[in-house]
Design a protein that fits this description.
Blueprint: H1 7-21, E1 26-32, H2 44-48, E2 52-58, H3 65-77, E3 81-84, H4 93-103, H5 105-113, E4 121-127, H6 133-141, E5 144-147, E6 160-163, E7 167-170, E8 174-175, H7 183-192, H8 202-216, H9 218-225, H10 235-245, H11 257-269
Parallel strand pairs: 1-2, 1-4, 2-3, 4-7, 4-8
Antiparallel strand pairs: 5-6, 6-7
The structure holds guanosine-5'-diphosphate (GDP) and magnesium ion.
Residues 1, 58-59, 61-62, 86-88, 127, 129-135 line the site of guanosine-5'-diphosphate.
Length: 279
């Protein structure tokens, strides 16, 4: 899951996308609803040229629904069609088909005028690691009619799957590399588990999360860890309080904040702190 991104990997991904994009009508980019902007790769538009893009804000079941709605509106203002989805939910896939249809409306009209009716929409899924690409593709397969088999002009081994609702899906997703020039972006990706913890110190990482939680969702922290949050506590102070409350004490009465940090991060990732958005 945690791919170490080297220039060689990026080149390979760029080549893969360039190879397939001309055969596609649109690209579905998946991002993580807990940090919709940070979990995107801003270079994608330049890789797909003039092809249409649908942004699927996945894992919306574990993000703050109010914030997810705000993100959808913000993307809309930027001219990006975005929909919220949860691959853990049995429903919702119809929304994806509807959105693709809407996105390709003009093209469908043009095709029709040229005598092509019911031309399948060809779609490629892209996204950084851990946003749910495999889960999403499996969810779409749930409605698969048949394997389309190799098509001429497509790299051997690559498969187009014919789905219901007239869509053909490339079964191999484009795995984008996460882009973090900014520390906050790296932190958000580390909180969600999209990048390895060992990129950053676990206690420092958790202290940042505690500090964000205390600012934005203090009640969740209080509820889960039964701690009082007084004014002016640092993230590390909060982590110490939580670790003590959980009884993580080392010899010499020292608080085991490393254990506490691992527990809090795990609980955050498992949505035990409720539905949270990080940006
Ligand atoms: N809560 C939640 N978890 C999801 C969702 N979609 C995927 N996941 C989980 O996120 C993790 C990464 O998913 P995966 O499909 O392997 O992502 P990929 O690396 O982009 O292919 C897995 O543990 C999935 O079970 C979702 O909509 N909601
Ligand atoms: Mg995968």
């Amino acid at each position: 899951m945690n791919i170490q991104w080297f220039p060689g990997h990026m080149t390979k991904t760029k080549r893969m996308i360039a190879e397939h994009i001309r055969l596609c009508d649109c690209v579905i980019e998946l991002c993580d609803a807990r940090c919709p902007q940070s979990s995107r790769n801003p270079l994608l538009p330049s890789l797909i040229g003039n092809k249409k893009l649908l942004l699927v804000i996945n894992k919306s079941d574990i993000a703050d629904p109010v914030q997810t709605q705000k993100w959808i509106e913000r993307f809309k203002k930027e001219g990006i069609m975005a929909i919220a989805l949860s691959c853990n939910d049995s429903k919702g896939i119809g929304k994806v088909f509807d959105a693709v249809k809407e996105l390709l409306k003009e093209k469908t009209e043009r095709d029709k005028a040229r005598g092509y009716v019911n031309k399948p929409a060809r779609v490629m899924v892209c996204g950084i690691p851990n946003v749910g690409k495999s889960s999403f593709i499996n969810k779409l397969y749930g409605k698969a009619a048949a394997k389309a088999g190799d098509k001429p002009g497509v790299t051997r081994g690559k498969q187009w799957i014919t789905l219901k609702n007239g869509m053909e899906l490339l079964d191999t997703p484009g795995i984008l590399w996460p882009k973090f020039e900014d520390k906050d972006v790296a932190l958000r990706l580390a909180f969600t588990g999209a990048i390895k913890d060992d990129v950053l110190d676990v206690e420092e990482l958790c202290a940042h999360l505690c500090s964000y939680m205390a600012k934005n969702y203090p009640e969740r922290l209080k509820e889960r860890y039964k701690t009082e949050l007084t004014e002016g506590l640092s993230g590390y102070d909060i982590l110490t309080l939580i670790s003590r409350k959980r009884g993580f004490i080392l010899k010499g009465n020292e608080v085991d904040t490393l254990r506490g940090a691992n527990v809090v991060l795990d609980e955050f990732r498992g949505a035990k702190l409720g539905r949270i958005t990080l940006e």
